[in-house]
Amino acid sequence: MEIVEDTYLVHRYWGKKLTSYHFSNRPPLKKRTFAAAPIAEKPEVSPEFLPFEFPYPHQGDFRNSAVQIQQANGDELVRFCFQSYEIKNGVNQLSDLPHARGADEEAQTLIIYLSDQIAEIELALYYTIFADSSVIVRSSKIKNIGTRPIKIAKLFSASIDVRYDQQLSTTFYGTHQKEFQLNRSEIQHGLYKIGSSRGASGPLYPPYIALSKGADEFRGEVHAMTLIYSGNHEIILERDQYDHLRMQAGLASETFSWQLNAEETFYSPQALLSYSDRGFNGSSQSFHRFFTDHLISPAWKNKERPLLINSWEMTYYDVNHKRIIDLIDAAADLGFETVALDDGWYGKRNSSKTSLGDWTVDTDKFPDGLKPLVDYAKEKNIGFGIWFEPEMISPKTELLQKHPDWVMRSKNYEPLLGRNQYVLDLTNPEVQHFIIETVAKTIMELGVSYVKWDMNRHMTDPFSQQQTFESTEYPHRYMLGLYRVLNELTSAFPEVLFENCSSGGGRLDPGMLFYFPQTWISDNTDGLDRQQIQYGASCLFPISSMTGHVSDVPNHQTNRVVPFKTRAALASSTNMGYEMNIAQLTEDEKKAVRSHLKEYKQERKLIMEGTFHRLQSPFEGNTCGWMFLNKEQAVIYLFRNRYQVFDLSLLIKLPGLDHHALYQEETTRQVYSGSELINCGLALENPKGDCIVQKIKLKKIEAESV
Ligand code: DGJ
């Protein structure tokens, strides 16, 4: 960064580590017609040509701003001038938002102070770096140092100005049952904007953007950015007429505002920035490491996750005592470690039309309640988990009759339904308290070891019937309410595994990862679609954070029939579980499941803690390949989807292996050099049939003597 003319904080470089910097890339400035020129004798110094660290509007920058403030007198002008900076040890632990974690000796935070003495507003920019990571954490803070209230109309977390250099942009897009699709495209002149106004981070455009230059999975530069936030957000890319390129991330400005009274401060969520010169794999690997070391709860870091059997696709709402007992018996027999009772156990929940909010056990289905089931599972050495959708309320409930004012809605319009339900007003502390008490009571009374936290509709009518703040404050206040609830529950029950779900990966983002070590990434368990979903999600999220289940065929979402081995390999490439009627398997099927679980248990540590490498993209061709690697071994899966008679054999190259080592392949016992597997690749049979998978297991045997 540089301070230009003692005023403007500008950006100079973000990339590969430099030994020292002497402004070699600082462009000479040139006077231009239409450019604002604040210094009369230096007309070439115009905000239009400066690469700002945090641009503000109406002052000649003319591009998308990162902050907008309305003063009490209605003035929308601010001129933030550089004031000072300080460097502190540690990270800025935000008390009401999820945030990066790090001890004082692991991280340092640079805080740059800018201020406008006329408007009496201070802007602080935070940059945290870590000894063991190349990820940079950025955020911003506004402080009202005047005596009258101000209104923040926009506050981003990070803004970066670079030169357009034919980079491509990569973002996610998706929908229910097709999350984390990759969108890679050229950058045109103008403004490109993605984000969410749904009250949840996805599944349309989860917060992620990457700029890549001549990059593929293995080579080239990638600058990527994401947000530790789960609600309405905005990602901006702007290429102007001079080929300045601006990349920004933060709270969605259209659905946000915040009144800040005298002496109050407001913190933005944190943005995470990762630079890689090893292509997209390098970029994801730094995010994966960072999330594992500095975001998820330390209690769950590298902690073995249970092999789970979930009741949903086996029973849907038709759960009862006998069926769950049968499920526990089968689970114990086959080698599962936790049984999860999904939707349908409470109120009169026989369809999606009722009972959310009435969280008492349905005694028609479970005459003795759920405790005997949990105890029975315990006797069999199996954990027991339970499903909740705590943020919601169904129209026909006792809860709604008792507390009609707890629904998120305006006073004048009937609220809209979504999946037959309304959203609870989480800005209301009474509602927060109700959710905390209900979930905590169930956990304590039953002694469950796992909770699936679902959220199946998006927000309409974002208003509180009780609170008095402006409606544009609502979406962020909802998130603060939710984060408070999650913080209380996950801190009170650190030994309980909380799994995030929003009809699959509809709200999977780094913010949720702070509270939930794992997420059900898609309701779509189809053996073809899952390849893209998992491949895409892995661009940002570590494998340990994604759960994947083997389900029945024909697949319930697509009606497609994909061989068991392929479905098993896909689930094995995540934090694994099953979702089918395991109580009614044939002897052959049982044998296959038993051996699959045994194999997964042997490889679980490698899959969960090893380095993940994407090898062949299902977005680009007929195959999808990836590798799990640690110092001793590698497991590689190659999915080949459509059989083509032209393809006499398959070939997979394995960049990422140790160039100087020798590896032995498990089935053939053949020894290969790392360098040949990296550069020449490994040739494989191409068996007939669609949707097949090949698994290769390599053991490092020794360093090759050169
Ligand atoms: C949506 C989830 O994604 C499913 O796994 C299941 O829990 C249903 N909700 C239950 O209603």
Automatic annotation (TrEMBL):
Swiss-Prot/TrEMBL keywords: Glycosidase, Hydrolase
The EC number(s) this enzyme carries: 3.2.1.22
Highest taxon listed in the record's lineage: Bacteria
PROSITE patterns tied to this protein: ALPHA_GALACTOSIDASE (PS00512)
Zinc-finger found in the keyword field: no
Annotated catalysed reactions: Hydrolysis of terminal, non-reducing alpha-D-galactose residues in alpha-D-galactosides, including galactose oligosaccharides, galactomannans and galactolipids
Glycosyl hydrolase family 36 N-terminal domain boundaries: 8-261
Glycosyl hydrolase family 36 C-terminal domain segment(s): 625-690
CDD domains named in the record: GH36
Key word Hydrolase present: yes
Coiled coil: none
Family: Belongs to the glycosyl hydrolase 36 family.
Name used for this protein in its record: Alpha-galactosidase
Origin species: Candidatus Enterococcus murrayae
Lineage: Bacteria, Bacillati, Bacillota, Bacilli, Lactobacillales
